[in-house]
């Protein structure tokens, strides 16, 4: 009798806790990525993801986010690339809403590189470090090589629902472009 009661109790407990809840899928748009560092966009919030080399577990990925107020993404890109031209003597410290980021410049094999150092939740005890990136890799992360850098200032669109076609004065050709759909002939 005890075994039957225990069996019913276990079955009832499993049925209560095995409910599946569907969560809303957050869509991130990838701006650029190189190896383990990537820049992503959701609405007007930009996130840089990187593999944390400061931990023993190489599967640790960290991120920091910021809003694109007053062209902050372009400003960060310019700040980083200017450091390649004129290497600063000490780390450049940036304060974000949740974290402190330092841009650490170093020459590797005679080539200037930069590393993101993140003080998680503005606490100096918890530090994450990205890989060192050269100018070419920074261009790739910030979407300069794939043409996605123009999406910094535009709001994120989902499946080009809100995109508009610029007006042109030329006649359209028979081959549709990426934003056009082919016209069907009516009989």
SSE layout:
Layout: H1 2-17, E1 29-34, E2 37-42, E3 45-51, E4 61-67, H2 72-85, E5 92-95, E6 100-108, E7 111-119, E8 127-129, H3 135-141
Antiparallel strand pairs: 1-2, 2-3, 3-4, 5-6, 6-7, 7-8
Question: Care to describe what's here?
Answer:
This protein is α+β, with helices and mostly antiparallel strands and 187 residues long. It is built from 3 helices and 8 strands; from the N terminus they run αββββαββββα. Strand 6 and strand 7 (111-119) form a beta hairpin. The termini are far apart.
Summed up:
The chain has 187 residues and is of the alpha+beta class. Helices cover 20% and strands 27% of the residues. Residues 156-187 have low confidence and may be disordered.
Question: Main β-sheet, in a few words?
Answer: 4 strands, antiparallel
Strand content: 25-35%
Number of E-type strands: 8
Strand arrangement, largest sheet?
1-2-3-4
Rounded mean pLDDT is 78
Q: Identify the overall geometry.
A: elongated
Write the element-wise H/E pattern from the N-terminal end onward. HEEEEHEEEEH
Secondary-structure content class: alpha+beta
Number of helices: 3
Low-pLDDT residue intervals, each spanning 5 or more residues: 156-187
Radius of gyration: 24 Å
Helical percentage = 10-25%
Distance between the termini: 78 Å
């Amino acid at each position: 009798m005890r075994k039957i009661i225990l069996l019913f109790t276990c079955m009832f407990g499993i049925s209560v806790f095995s409910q599946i809840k569907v969560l809303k899928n957050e869509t991130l748009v990838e701006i650029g990525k190189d190896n383990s560092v990537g820049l992503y966009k959701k609405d007007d919030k930009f996130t840089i993801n990187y593999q944390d080399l400061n931990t023993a577990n190489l599967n640790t990925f960290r991120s920091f986010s910021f809003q694109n107020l007053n062209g902050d993404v372009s400003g960060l890109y310019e700040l980083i690339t200017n450091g390649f031209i004129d290497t600063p003597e000490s780390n450049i410290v940036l304060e974000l809403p949740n974290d402190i980021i330092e841009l650490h410049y170093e020459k590797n094999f005679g080539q200037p590189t930069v590393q993101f150092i993140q003080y998680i939740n503005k606490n100096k005890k918890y530090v994450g470090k990205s890989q060192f990136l050269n100018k070419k890799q920074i261009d790739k992360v910030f979407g300069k090589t794939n043409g996605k850098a123009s999406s910094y200032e535009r709001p994120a669109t989902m499946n080009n629902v809100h995109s508009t076609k610029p007006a042109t004065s030329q006649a359209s050709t028979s081959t549709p472009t990426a934003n056009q759909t082919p016209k069907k002939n009516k009989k």
